[in-house]
Amino acid sequence: MTSPALTPDQLKALVRTVPDWPARGVQFRDITTLIADGDGLAATIAYLADRVDAADAQMVAGMEARGFIFGAAVAARLGLGFLPIRKPGKLPIETLGIDYALEYGADRLEIDPGAVTDGMRIALVDDLIATGGTACASAALLRKAGAMVETAHFVIDLPDLGGADRLRRDDIAVDALMAFDGE
pTM higher than 0.90 for the full model? Predict the structure, then answer.
């Protein structure tokens, strides 16, 4: 692969911080400014693709919705298939699903069970790891389908929220291009 044109620090500078959104005290990390910058988006995809390639993945999976942006682009760059992990009711077929707890409630994720073969090495790709609830549920769902999920790759880590550590406790190596302290 060719070296990306921008450094991780330059990419981090392209992420907009929105204070007090969606609640007072939260520093929202907005990637829309990163993906709106052509060089920034290309460099981000290049970094993620290099890391997924090094993990020897056979497929890339991304969580709805921003994981679709990064995961599909990484998969295309590497010539791999992409598996969307969907919210409930979005797939027109019988699905394999998993229910999981959120901070205030519950949610569900679903996949096409025919897209995964037993023992397939799948890398998770998403824009951000915060508490890790969705990423852990995604890994559990893929493993339920027979996949080996050993790596997860993110553009942003919010280490103070502990999500990367939760994934590591599930024997998943976590990689992020940048980290932001705080929530």
Answer: yes
